[in-house]
Design goal:
Blueprint (H helix, E strand, L loop, with lengths): L2 H10 L1 H54 L7 H13 L7 H13 L5 H27 L3 H9 L3 H25 L5 H26 L8 H14 L10 H19 L12 H16 L4 H7 L1
Helix pairs in contact: 2-3, 2-5, 3-4, 4-5, 7-8, 8-9, 8-10, 9-10
Keywords: Membrane, Transmembrane, Transmembrane helix
Length: 301
């Protein structure tokens, strides 16, 4: 096809050519922005991991010398407290470690240090493993990871196209209401519930597929639940009469997600290993710490 024929075709199909050009520009723009955004999130996670590990490593040395009761100078006590206080500013510090550091800073009880050292070592090993997995995905991705890294930036364009379709659908539903067409109330209800269900599915499916967030406990289950809720909307293809029931099932499963994501408040449960300390204290009070009755002692004598 020669250049003149291309020009003739473009002149005959101006609207189609303009729409195609705008779609291509939107696709390339969203692809580039999405790819840069994901790379920026990965760099941010690496920076947070590096800062957390540096703070934990700085506190590990003074803490180990204190636990093993090595000969330390007088300033080591202040150094340990300063390093532990600095750990509280770590981006990826857990609530367990945060509470243990606060408890030691408040009472300066050396009995808390062995448990604090174990927790600090466990958190450091977990962050090292997380950093290795993140670096492996960036620098040495598997075949599936490499393919997904190329496909994932396309998702914003696909979801933008789906939302554009939904806006046209919403405009049609509003016109049907304003014009006052003779559509049955049941059919109108089905159409609106189907529209709400599809929008709700898109809002749940987009963050579940895009990811980019740090993996925490229960995140995989909530991600799978979001995808399952979104896939339920495919039942609309079977019959629109099921739309109210599908939307109700989606809402019910969505509220189930709140129950799965709910955590017991940190202050209402002891940190790991604190049960033994509590039991020892209660046993000590029951055996030797309770006040004795002088009258009972004299009667027994």
């Amino acid at each position: 096809m020669s250049l003149s024929e291309w020009i003739t075709w473009l002149q005959q199909h101006e609207r189609t050519a303009l729409a195609s050009f705008l779609a291509l520009a939107l696709f390339l723009g969203l692809y580039g922005v999405s790819e840069r955004k994901m790379a920026r999130k990965e760099r941010s996670r690496l920076d947070h991991l590096r800062i957390s590990l540096e703070l934990f490593s700085a506190a590990a040395g003074p803490l180990m010398r204190k636990v093993h009761k090595l000969e330390t100078a007088s300033y080591e006590e202040e150094l340990l407290s300063d390093r532990l206080l600095a750990c509280r500013a770590a981006p990826y510090i857990t609530a367990d470690l945060l509470v243990q550091i606060g408890a030691y800073i408040n009472d300066q009880d050396p009995a808390r240090l062995p448990l604090l050292q174990k927790t600090l070592e466990r958190e450091s090993e977990r962050l090292i493993e997380e950093r290795e997995n993140l670096l492996s995905g960036i620098e040495r991705p598997s075949w599936g990871q490499s393919l997904w890294q190329q496909v994932r930036p396309i998702l914003p364009f696909l979801f933008a196209s789906a939302l554009l379709f939904c806006f046209g659908w919403l405009f049609k539903l509003i016109i049907d209401l304003s014009v006052g067409t003779t559509i049955e109330g049941r059919i109108l209800l089905n159409n609106w519930t189907c529209f709400v269900s599809v929008i709700f599915s898109l809002l749940l499916l987009y963050p579940a597929l895009m990811g980019g967030r740090r993996k925490v406990e229960g995140a995989a289950l909530l991600q799978a639940l979001s995808i399952f809720i979104a896939l339920i909307s495919l039942i609309h293809w079977i019959s629109l009469d099921l739309s109210p029931y599908i939307l109700g099932a989606q809402a019910l499963l969505f509220f189930v997600g709140f129950l799965l994501a709910g955590n017991k408040p940190r202050r209402s449960r002891p940190f790991a290993g604190h049960y033994d300390q509590m039991n020892n204290e209660s046993t000590g009070r029951a055996t030797g710490d309770l006040p004795t009755d002088p009258e009972s002692e004299s009667s027994t004598n």
